[in-house]
Amino acid sequence: METKSIRNVDISLIQHLPMIDFIGNDFAIFDDIKDMPLSPYPTRLNAACFCVCLKGWCRMHINLQKYELSEGMMGIILPDQIVQQGGRSDDFSGIFIAISKSFIDGVLPTMQQLFPLFFLIKERPCVHITPEEQQAFKDYHSFLWSRVKLKDNPFRKEITQGLLVSLFYEIYHIYQGHTTQERIPKTRKEDLFERFLRYISESYKENRSVSYYADKMFLTAKHLSTVVKDVSGKTAGEWIDSLVILEAKALLKSSELSVQEIADELHFANQSFFGKYFKHHTGMSPKEYRRQ
């Protein structure tokens, strides 16, 4: 049954390729993707990927939305996002960094003020950057690569994590300069929203009720909905529904599971209820979407 689900991939998938340096299954750095395996099917990445395109273009879907990364652009894919790779030009080149979820979790506690960056990236995973910003990313990439190569250094992992914290701040600065809508969320609300996203990402398949998550957070459903709407512009129910529909679409497009099996996977009472839910949010039945 595992082959029928959305494929999950991590850094270990590319560890056999030449010209890439690693820190275990936590970190990879490289500047050539000609040997990189491409999948035309939706795939969930268990890592964050950072790229600056130096030449040519590359197309992809991130959470089923189409994007094109071209010369002079930075592209970022966050962990657990669903990626479907499209075509790329023969002359496509860039510099790349891949970081596992656990490696990022090791530095997140020191980056509380960077939390709005992840909203900005989700809204705009591909941004144009200036030549100076491109050079800054090149400098970090070069220095990180030189540190990763020092395999005899017992603090190689810690040094890399420290440099990544600095790189995240640089990227936040870039996004602030290139994003027209700047948020200044209240710290308390931001923290509640972060916890809400964490809870729904863990339980959205089993629980689609706002009150369920409100109870877990010791809040009223009304207060949670107000906070989520203030911070993100979307209601708590819309966030839950968006995750469920995204998962359903990816399963319909990428797996051999029947509609009934997908309904079971997402813990709907029956296929009919799943079909009505899916059509309400997408305007078409699961079978129509699969045929599309």
UniProtKB/TrEMBL annotation:
Q: SUPFAM superfamilies annotated for this entry?
A: Homeodomain-like (SSF46689), Regulatory protein AraC (SSF51215)
Name the InterPro entries for this protein. Homeodomain-like_sf, HTH-like, HTH_AraC, Tscrpt_reg_AraC-type_HTH
DNA-binding keyword on record = yes
UniProt keyword Ribonucleoprotein, yes or no? no
Q: Which residues form a coiled coil?
A: none
Say which domain of life the source belongs to.
Bacteria
Q: Which Pfam families match?
A: HTH_18
Any GO molecular function: DNA-binding transcription factor activity
Q: What UniProt keywords are attached to this protein's entry?
A: DNA-binding, Transcription, Transcription regulation
Q: Which residues form the HTH araC/xylS-type domain?
A: 194-292
Name recorded for this polypeptide? Transcriptional regulator, AraC family
Organism of provenance: Bacteroides fluxus YIT 12057
What's the source species' lineage? Bacteria, Pseudomonadati, Bacteroidota, Bacteroidia, Bacteroidales
